[in-house]
Amino acid sequence: MTAAAKLEIPGLDRIRDRFVDMLGDRKTTIAQHALAAWDGKTADDINANLTAARATLHLIAGTAGTVGFPELGHSALHCEQEIIDHLDGPDAVLAVCPGEIIWRIDDFVASCNKITA
Amino acid sequence: MKILAVDDDPIILELLTQFVASFGQHTLLTASSGPEALDLLSGDNAQTFDCFMLDIQMPVMDGMELTRQIRALPAHAEAPIVMLTAMSEKRYIDGAFGAGASDYVTKPFDVVELKTRIEVIDRLVRNRKPKNTKIFAANTLNEQLRADADFIELHAPISLHDVENVIECNAMENYVAQLSRSSLFGSTVFAFSIRKIDGFHNALSAAEFKFLIEDIAEIISDTLTGRQFLMSYAGNGTYVCITESGWRPDMERLTDQVNLYLNRAHIISNTGQELHPRISTGAAIRLVWKSGDQILNALGQAQSSAEAAAEEHERLKTDFFQFGRTA
């Protein structure tokens, strides 16, 4: 391993602890919006909840890898990307919440639970 | 170097604070939104920063709008702006460069990459500082010295901030260097070069020369409206463009279109004299199968080929008029 590869951010343990603390609230926010999207009756309602879930997933995808949870970061990124693809796609005008997004978010929340437990 | 980092995620701000504090003599301040950042940059207690690191997607004001507003502040018109970009935001990169960003780093941060970027920016800022100091010193001297301080080298790149899709020269290099393999397939670089640029450079004041470069950039940008592109003024009267959309520009047609618009534009100097700038274009170079330095070299090739075309045009014109005069 080179000297450069050993570079690490000082105080990373403290930041990691804060990330894990925040992950508890963030996973709950994501799960609530995912369930609300699943139960949504209109396209606007579904899309608004998916957009809100996406925003929180985006935050996790941006930092999880740096604080030592790369797999969680990838999982958040995949969830986020699926939501973006749906919202940018032709089905966004329909009052349908794709099951694949909800299953993926369910897996993601389970991964969060393992970290926050 | 004094840096302002703006991100709505407190974890990102904390990571950057710790990281920047760990090396170099840098000071990092943070803001959690665009309006909070602008508060720091305006009013009686306005602060000046050497560099900005901005998240792209933020509530209330996104990073692109914040970039535009920072660029509009004279004290920060030239400051490096690095966008902090998540993988899912790659589609916003063009817009960010178009708004005035100089570079981007991808989240989650690679610590080594981040350190390298900050060091590059630090060198850029240090190189710029002596120039500012000289201009400041010249303010106390007479008019002639002031004019000299404002002199623009013919070959120097000029930052043009108010023209759609025009980015700084070093931002163009950063942008091209980070194009993904899939983006390279649809990417083409090409250039426009102003004919007889040295004549304009000799005849016009520095301010007039910059206005001319800006006016022509605007005309080229208008001509390319509807196409996805980024453009940069590389100095010596040459504009280098890149398109990622798969569009293969017809350079002869583009030359005619730009020159037609230039003819209609009636560009006037400060003395009321009408200028008649015309451009030539070089080869359109596809980036497919290129990698590493070859990609950056392609920018240079596009620039050289446009400049050669401009010189060739003038040479042919001279040869035509001298035909039959010599024995």
What does this structure look like?
Chain A has one domain: Up-down Bundle (Four Helix Bundle (Hemerythrin (Met), subunit A)), CATH 1.20.120. Chain A has four helices and no strands. The longest helix of chain A has 28 residues. In chain A, 35% of the residues are buried. Chain B is an alpha/beta fold. Chain B has two domains: 150 residues, Response regulator (Rossmann fold); 175 residues, Alpha-Beta Plaits. Chain B contains twelve helices and twelve strands. In chain B, the strands form three sheets. Chain B has a five-stranded parallel beta sheet, sandwiched between helices. In chain B, helix 2 runs parallel beside helix 3 and helix 3 packs parallel to helix 4. The longest helix of chain B has 30 residues. About 6% of the residues of chain B have low confidence.
